[in-house]
């Protein structure tokens, strides 16, 4: 009898403990969508959108920051985590559950005004060295091109510095990422020359295909609600987001 009474007394605590368990978010360290802080919690467009969605759902978040290639691998094998902010493409389509679109992005070719003042196109790339982030959507877009040397990095800020020094002649990158990392490297924005758009793509909140469909629907609905009430657009505006 005492055991039954004890279990009844403890059951609300057990329920609270399970309900308060944080939702784990695997976030690829790609500013300005996900920005690693020197101290404290990460920030960024995608992080703030998800934090507001979590607040509305009453869900605590636990954010795990890592390089893009590792984030993609981790999220595809862990059935109970969310993933920020992958671009949706044919190669990734079967690997993830695509929960909700977050923003549109233009993946472009970028050159430096001093070294290549004319905008680059895919036709002018053969013979050039192109900086690209390992595992990125940009890498998949230039992969089929012949005569192009890829120089891989794990952080886009490295490509901003390499472009300024002439170590790479082109940078395949999302336009908002290029602008943010150019400033992060302490370099002038006007030095960037925007070339041909490789593709316009959508960045998503995603998860493993084994992620709970009912939970995915909750997140999809609240992010759509944020889109409709304008709060999603307000968050993007704070980061000087430029739509394609």
TrEMBL record:
It comes from the Bacteria. Residues 23-239 form the Solute-binding protein family 3/N-terminal domain. Keywords: Signal. Residues 1-22 form the signal peptide. It holds the Pfam family SBP_bac_3. The keyword tRNA processing does not apply. PANTHER family: PERIPLASMIC SUBSTRATE BINDING PROTEIN FAMILY 3, SOLUTE-BINDING PROTEIN FAMILY 3_N-TERMINAL DOMAIN-CONTAINING PROTEIN. This is Transporter substrate-binding domain-containing protein. The lineage of its organism: Bacteria, Pseudomonadati, Pseudomonadota, Gammaproteobacteria, Aeromonadales.
